Amino acid sequence: MSIFPYAYYMVQDFGYTKDSEISMYVGMVTSAFAFAECISGIFWGRLSDRIGRKKVLLGGLFGTGLSMILFGFASSLPMALVARALGGLLNG
User: Which of 3, 48, 76, 84 has a 20 to 30 Å separation from 31 between CA atoms?
Assistant: First the structure.
């Protein structure tokens, strides 16, 4: 949830100047995580039934950490979108 205070300025730093563009892209960046998490949730649930909850939670923690590092170093909007979506997909 800490993304909300600075996402506007991050997208603005990518070179977008119109408020309407920035707002749209901030919405895309913040919703990419939830959309990808929704898609992968059933997979992670079934995997945790098969191999155990602890392993899946540790993998999800690693995936979230990796995606946050990528998101923090994102230098363009597509890279930020991929990092957030990757965080949702790997969020066990």
Answer: 48
